[in-house]
Amino acid sequence: MIVIELAGKEYQVKNDWREISIADAREIVKNDLPANLKEFFDNLAKGKEDAHIIQETDEDIIRNIPVYQGKIIKLMSNIPDDIIGRLYSDVRQQLYSELCLDFDFGIRHTPFNYEMKGIDHFTHKGKEFYFIADREEIDQVVKGGSQSIVEFAEVADLQLYAKELKNGSVDVATNVISILCREKKNGKIEKYNRQKCLDNAKEFDSLPVSIMFEVTFFLNRLSNIFIQDSRTSLSRVVSKQKKQVMNQD
Fold first, then answer.
1. For the whole model, what pTM was predicted?
2. Crossing angle between the packed helical segments 35-45 and 101-108, to the nearest 10 degrees
3. Taking a C-beta distance cutoff of 8 angstroms, is the pair 135, 121 a contact?
4. pLDDT tens column, 168-186
């Protein structure tokens, strides 16, 4: 947390990804970006050098953007509504730009100011949850190993949630985490159980967004395996069909 002073009083503003929960992120994305700020975010995500050059109307500058900035400042701090309500647009602009913008953008697009740790487990409410595979297991599969990391039921549910997560839906983040991260019993990661994962997903709302980023990174590596497995399976089917045709001849 970072401490700031407004109207003679001190307030705290979240200043680290570990301080922002997935529930916080969900509340942030519920607020629609003003059109010009959305354009700025989209351009920035595409890496455009002139991303900051956007058209702004008087209404945007005087009302739309300051109103939005006030909502995000409220979600990122313990500043009371009445204090935020008395903040003029220049103060809102400064607070949002210096303390909130990077986090707002990172949740909606890519967290430029977060360095992936490559964790293999995390602790939540006294329980330890482990990623369903470690780096070595994933690398072996990517290099042509034959073992299966995930079963069909997991893949089916995971792909449905992952598609929404890729499209920016924070709502399914906890579902993805519950599938990819589970407890261990007798030294082994628990088998996939849809209902238990749904129950865990409800508890994961209070997880920090940093865990969501780590799981998304892990998911991207798994996606390469899914693609590879699909291509291998298709290749086998085509090869089998070719042999059948040749035998008929």
1. 0.76
2. 70
3. no
4. 568 888 988 998 899 998 8
